[in-house]
Amino acid sequence: MNKKTIILFGAIITVLLLFFFLRRNNGNTLSNDEREFEFKSTDKIDKVFLSNKFTKEYVLLTKKDKDNWTVNDSFVASNYQIEILFDGLKKIRVKRPVSKHEINPVKKDLALNGTKVEIYENGNLSKVFYVGGNTSDEMGTYFMMEKGEEPYVCHIPGFNGFLNARFFTKKDGWRSKNIFALKDSEIKKIDLKWSENSKSSFSIDNSGKEPLLYSENLLLKNNIEVNLNHLKTYLKLWENLSFEGFPIDLNAKQIDSIYNTNPLLVIKVLDKKDKLVSLRIYKKGIKRDSNIQFDEQGNPLQFDIETFYAFINENGKEVVQIQDYIFGKVMKQSTDFLIK
Questions:
Q1: Residue 335: exposure state from Cβ atoms within 10 A (0-12, 13-18, ≥19)
Q2: Can you tell me the distance from the alpha carbon of 209 to that of 211, in angstroms, rounded to the nearest whole number?
Q3: Which of 171, 172, 182 is nearest to 277 (CA)?
Q4: Contact between 189 and 207 (Cβ < 8 Å)
Q5: Cα–Cα distance, 323 to 181 (Å, whole number)
Q6: What is the residue-wise DSSP string for 99-168?
Q7: Range 305-330 burial, b when 16+ CB lie within 10 A, else e
Q8: E strand or H helix at 297
Q9: What is the phi/psi pair of residue 334, to 5°?
């Protein structure tokens, strides 16, 4: 056997030994790819798909521009929730491998109950992994990369909380609760129509140098009939008006019934990009959990004075609850702007 043949034969033996060594240890050692859940930067992420086979729920988060995301291509996403998700993706770390006696039950639970997470960067699928339950000591959460050999425990160093709470699949939790989020300089027109007293209705034209108030289709004169400072202050109140949540005690029939009754007030706000947002506000009957049940004279109240029902943009299928504490400041009447 010549020298070249010996060298070649030795190289082949070395490759084969390395191959069998790696295969033997593959069941006990996770590759770097299987351990790398974190993203050093989330700037390139433009889509996140979360789904759960057990609950049959899913959420598609899509980036529209630098500051805006949508939920299921239908609703504006909460920037706060997006930030919480991305913070987790940047800080998540492997805490420890899953012990041998845990592997089978954890893998089974991930397959049945885990949330599948698909992360896209620049339109391309970047990572796919599963998020499961929490460890018995409540100090970590089970994760597993798709096509990975083993699950393992992840955490955020210094954070005492569950990571799976950041990967939820209920779409309402991802939605922004903002209804109106406009600076005064962005508002073109505001229109309020009161059903019970049309004389209280008004509109504000903010397309010119100074806002103008119209009541009963008549233009009122600034600083003669109308307090201009009150108008300008009012325009600054629309930056952060959000709904409280979704009433859980109403079925579809009850929601339809409310929508088809006469609203207390209809608000329409047009911005300078000609985007219109409308809000139909309805009185809410007193319920057992209403904080205030009686008036100052001790008489039972018929309607809740702290909260209202509302429908956004004529969507009669979905009712939200708003607080008087938040919206009461913009639920004005025309006389509130007049010079006394």
A1: exposed
A2: 7
A3: 182
A4: yes
A5: 16
A6: PHHHHHHHHHHHHHHPEEEEEEETTEEEEEEEEEEE-TTSS-EEEEETT-S--EEEE-TT--S-GGGGS-
A7: eebbbbbbeeeeeebbbbeeeebeeb
A8: none
A9: -55, -35
**From CA 110, how far away is CA 184, in angstroms rounded?**
49
Positive or negative: CA dihedral 270, 274, 275, 280 = positive
Q: How many CB atoms lie within 10 A of CB 277?
A: 18
Q: Does the predicted model carry a pTM greater than 0.85? A: no
Burial tier of 15 (Cβ tally within 10 Å: 0-12, 13-18, 19+): exposed
Please, are residues 266 and 193 in contact by the beta-carbon 8 Å criterion? yes
Q: How far is it, in rounded angstroms, from Cα 312 to Cα 282? A: 12
Q: Letter for the amino acid at 25?
A: N
Sign of the CA dihedral running 324, 330, 335, 337: positive
Report whether 219 contacts 212 (CB < 8 A): yes
Burial 135-167 (b: 16+ CB within 10 A, else e): beeeebbbbbbeebebbbbbbbeeeeebbbebb
Burial, 38: exposed, middle or buried (Cβ in 10 Å; 0-12, 13-18, 19+)?
Answer: middle
Could you report the average pLDDT of every consecutive run of 10 residues in the chain (340 residues)? 51 47 39 79 96 96 94 94 96 92 93 96 96 89 93 91 93 95 97 94 97 96 95 97 93 96 97 97 86 79 91 95 97 95
Query: What's the rounded Cα separation, in Å, for the pair 73 and 286?
Result: 36
Token output for 58:
């899913």
Quote the CA–CA distance of 327 and 244 in Å, as a whole number. Answer: 11
